[in-house]
Amino acid sequence: MHDGDTEPRRPAIASRIRIGTSGWQYADWRGVLYERGLPQREWLRRYAEVFDTVELNYSFYRLPSVESFVAWREAVPRGFLIAPKMSRYLTHVRGLREPEDPVRRFVERASHLGDHLGPIVVQLPPTRQKDAGSLERTLAAFPRRQRVALEFRHESWFSDDVRALLEAHDAALVWADRDGRLRDPDWITASWMYVRMHGGRGPSGNYGSRVIASYADRLAARDLEAFVYFNNDSTGNAVRNARALARRLGIRGPR
């Protein structure tokens, strides 16, 4: 991220923030991040030259094979972190009920990322209302050292007992932005943060400089280790916006 600008730098804060995108396999990123003609098998390597983390959306739809996790592990450099999205089988089919076996299978498979395994993000559907008991069982099913982030999309989850559960497990409440506005409470429930930028206003989902600056200020004010992913992949906006936020925070490139 060497695009050059005169925006203020925050090197101490920036060293604790990782910024990337939700996925990397998008055809319309050709000419934005990927040189035209670059084989698709090389896209992750190229991505890792620019960013130091990526959110793995594919694992939400289908549990990747061991071979896939190993291939991704071998494609990225030291220090790069991959944040897998928990399988929809647990969140959308089972609704967090009896989570032990799905969590065990998912974590075992993701463990093949080795040192490149970052947080696991658990996103619930907007129709799933609060079930504190199932949430507690789900959090307890993860290994103690595994970081877990929760994205709730029904307002019933934003209650004191749920907040206390997240805090007890050092699990992060996802800050989810849609249409350029934070839709969830700005709770800090862990010793780290997880932010998902789903898209700005307008059909392209691009974020303007004012919103980017606002999130830079929010991240700097918390001064915590943070993971930020842009999910507005259309026409390469996620790449542009992630770079813009990185510049604003003084992040010069992958560690």
At a glance:
By secondary structure, this protein is an alpha/beta fold. It has helices at 11-14, 43-47, 58-61, 66-75, 88-93, 100-110, 132-141, 160-168, 209-222, 237-249; strands at residues 17-21, 53-56, 81-84, 120-123, 148-151, 172-173, 175-178, 181-182, 192-197, 225-230. It contains 10 helices and 10 strands.
Features:
255 residues, alpha/beta, TIM Barrel, 5-stranded mixed sheet
State the end-to-end distance. Answer: 11 Å
Relative strand content: 15-25%
Structural class: alpha/beta
Q: How do the SSEs run, as a string of H and E?
A: HEHEHHEHHEHEHEEEEHEH
Rg over C-alpha atoms, rounded to the nearest angstrom: 18 Å
Secondary-structure arrangement, i.e. CATH architecture? Alpha-Beta Barrel
Low-confidence stretches: 1-7
Give the strand line-up of the largest sheet.
1-10-9-7-8
CATH topology: TIM Barrel
> What is the CATH class designation?
Alpha Beta
Count of discrete domains: 1
Task: Report the total helices.
Answer: 10
Helix content: 25-40%
Number of strands: 10
Overall spatial form: globular
Mean pLDDT: 93
Main sheet? 5 strands, mixed
CATH superfamily: Protein of unknown function UPF0759
Structure commentary:
The chain has 255 residues and is an alpha/beta fold. The chain has one domain (11-249): Protein of unknown function UPF0759 (TIM Barrel, Alpha-Beta Barrel). It has 10 helices and 10 strands. It has helices at 11-14, 43-47, 58-61, 66-75, 88-93, 100-110, 132-141, 160-168, 209-222, 237-249; strands at residues 17-21, 53-56, 81-84, 120-123, 148-151, 172-173, 175-178, 181-182, 192-197, 225-230. The strands form 3 sheets. Strands 1-10-9-7-8 form a 5-stranded mixed sheet. It has a 3-stranded parallel sheet with strand order 4-5-6, covered by helices on one side. Helix 8 (160-168) links the parallel strand 5 and strand 6 (172-173). Helix 7 (132-141) runs parallel beside helix 8 and helix 9 crosses helix 10 (237-249). The chain starts with 10 loop residues before the first helix and ends in a 6-residue tail after the last helix.
